[in-house]
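USER: Please consider what follows.
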Amino acid sequence: MALTNLAEVARLDGRPEEAERLGRSAMPELDRVGDPNHRRRLLVTIGLALAESGRIVEAQEILERLRLPEDQAPDGPAAVVEAAVALQLGEQKRAAECFARAAEAYEGAHDLRDVVEALAGFIVSTPNQEDRAAAVLRMADLCRSGGITLLPRERDRLGPAITAQVVG
């Protein structure tokens, strides 16, 4: 589990190559003894790290491993990786739709940080000003109520004006 957490910290710290390396190192042990939800979370870390590194084909391979059977509603892990891939491909509309789906799927889950990260992606990718404004308000509320601080990479992505609205 320690390598899994280190992989996510590396990704959030803007070191996607290190995150991918650590994540792949942790996967065999998680496959052997880990909880399926921990494996999915690690796959998300690896998929996002690959997408952030521009390694789209490899990120899409991870995305395929995350997809649920067609009879199940899409979940946050698959949606957030799909969004990151779409964003790297310049598909803003698809990215926004997937980030919105991820934020909705993560809502009420154990980690509000996932919702905040998905909302940050949605805010930077949606062309719709009203939807963006609503997402900024939602993010500000989640940060206040959940005691979440925006990471430097999120502040950079959002820019100073939106960051100021979120942090008050």
Q: What stands out?
A: The CA atoms of residues 35 and 100 lie 27 Å apart. The two ends are 35 Å apart (CA to CA).
